[in-house]
Design goal:
Layout: H1 3-18, H2 25-32, H3 36-42, H4 46-71, H5 74-91, H6 93-101, H7 109-134, H8 142-161, H9 169-186, H10 194-200, H11 210-223, H12 228-241, H13 247-258, H14 264-274
Helix pairs in contact: 1-2, 4-5, 4-7, 4-14, 5-8, 5-9, 7-8, 8-9, 11-12, 11-14, 12-13, 13-14
């Protein structure tokens, strides 16, 4: 574990107990057993640390969902989409609860911008899933379905994040699959037209240049010890600089890094860059 990862892990423990505002840099460094100087070598401020934590969670969540939508067969796609969503919420429940209870004034403009961009990225993934599952059948209803699915994700997560109820995840997912299919196949009145989406749509930073992707890859390479993930990242970086590999080889390299917790966002960006579905 790098010093930066240690700071993020220990800070999250304190944030979960005390909240963002009540937690000081001194408390974080004391828990880590490091100096303030070491902290500021990794993060310029506590705000930058908070953004990094949320960045880390949202990158993993978005890339996990995108991987499911890209790779799963239609027969199990919707089930695995919901299962991955709620499994991730449950796995990171302390952090998710922290985001839900933290007052909005604790978030700076940079954080709001990042959350907006991740939200738009997630919406694109969900729309892609709707198009795969329902095609022309739901073309007029796709945005209504998008907001319904996002509503299911948010509302049902409260059962274990807020009320801490024991949840049968399999039954929950089956129920939401049934509800979503009924909405897609039986709803006839569309409320959200393309024109409304165009009014609320804003550009996102989800498609960075090759140079930006290379920067992300190089950071991963520096952070990882020798492993198949590190070797795969080196080859993928070379492919960005001088394309020579067959698409099947590139896809295999992406598979190698997909499930590493510190490479998921890199895999997501590379899948978009190479157009791999």
């Amino acid at each position: 574990m790098t010093k930066k990862q240690l700071i993020m892990e220990k800070a999250l423990e304190l944030f979960a107990k005390q909240g963002f505002e009540a937690t000081s840099v001194q408390q974080i460094t004391d828990l880590c057993g490091i100096s303030k100087g070491a902290f500021y070598l990794s993060f310029k401020s506590k705000d930058e640390l908070i953004v990094a934590l949320i960045d880390h969670f949202m990158r993993q969540f978005t890339s996990d969902i995108d991987f499911v939508v890209s790779e799963e067969d239609e027969e199990v796609l919707l089930y695995n989409f919901y299962y991955t969503t709620f499994h991730s919420f449950n796995k990171h429940s302390d952090f998710a609860k922290l985001l839900m209870k933290e007052p909005a004034q604790s978030f700076n403009e940079d954080l709001f911008s990042k959350l907006h961009n991740y939200n738009k990225s997630l919406e694109k993934v969900i729309l892609s899933m709707i198009e795969r599952l329902y095609g022309e059948q739901a073309i007029d209803m796709k945005y209504d379905l998008l907001f319904c699915i996002k509503g299911f994700m948010s509302t049902y997560s409260e059962l274990f994040l807020v009320y801490k109820l024991p949840i049968d995840l399999d039954l929950l997912v089956q129920s939401l699959v049934e509800k979503t299919n009924l909405l897609a196949k039986k709803t006839t009145i569309s409320f959200i037209p393309d024109e409304l989406i165009q009014l609320i749509d804003q550009p996102t930073n989800e498609d960075p240049s090759s140079e930006k992707v290379i920067e992300v890859i190089e950071k991963n390479i520096d952070d990882l010890e020798d492993s198949i993930e590190k070797e795969s990242l080196i080859l993928l970086k070379q492919e960005l600089l001088e394309p020579t590999l067959h698409p099947a080889v590139v896809k295999g390299l992406l598979t190698n890094i997909q499930h590493h917790p510190h490479c998921k966002w890199t895999a997501y960006l590379l899948r978009k860059h190479f157009g791999i579905k």
